[in-house]
Design a protein that fits this description.
The protein has 299 residues and is an alpha+beta fold. The protein is 48% helix and 15% strand. The protein has 2 domains: 177 residues, Jelly Rolls (Sandwich); 106 residues, Homeodomain-like (Arc Repressor Mutant, subunit A, Orthogonal Bundle), CATH 1.10.10. β5 and β6 form a beta hairpin. The termini are far apart.
Length: 299
Amino acid sequence: MVNNTSVPSLSLAAMLRDLQYEWHTSEYYIASDDVISKPQFTAPFRPEFYGIILCVQGWMDLLVNGHRVHIGENGFFAGGPDMVLQRAGQSDNCKNKAVFFTKEFLVYNFNNFRQFVSFHFFSTHFKESIHLSRSEVTPLVKLYEILQEKRTQVDSVYHVEIIRNLIFAYVYETAIIYQQKGLKVPERFTKETDICNKFQNLVAKHGAKEHRLQFYADALFVTPKYLIGVIRKVTGKTPGTIIDEAILSEACSLLKKWDPSIETIADKLHFADQASFSKFFKKHMGVSPLVYRKKNGKP
């Protein structure tokens, strides 16, 4: 078994560098139709991103949380940060229709948080690899062909928005497949999912200024302990983690512009001072707000 506490994280950008893929962003990646490269990095890692892989030729083996998973032709695999992965071999002719994306890319400006929570459920509760029939493969391939058509059109006006929504469509198609395969997907209108949806709406509305769990528990007329249990059951996360992600999403959005100042952003997000905000941001993102802005900011 893998000792999870000692497993390093791997960013999407680092994975692409390891595979020697030239790509224009570190937020998502859409694979070409070429035979996939063999990685230089073969140690266990915890991805800082999500991935959906459909093998269309050859095969690939992964170690997932220490267990070998074989992905053959028409084999389907999806995973994310809750897994420890290790590349364990592939055929010389292996081709995948693969989509990788970061959490921040999908929940940019927090508009699509419910959809992301739905995918998080799939990524933590599904079977690690399933074999698809030709009829199941067809809608995924059709969507993927559109993604491939759009993948290099980076100068089009709404390129990023189009890619983001196409990836969401791809995620929903995977949800349909897992439902057909017998995965028990959360019902939309149970009491627990209703509370979860209301909590998400509250965080989307108040997350920038209200960081306290008690605020949300009071607004939903439940105890903090009960709210923690419900949110963890539905999403696999704690309310605190979701609140932090809302703050980070808004922070990243603001930092991608050169105005306002970091001090102003800290105040807007209701931190005591710039130092407190910087400490919070670096803890979760691995870099300071200034470094993040220099790397990702646009005039």
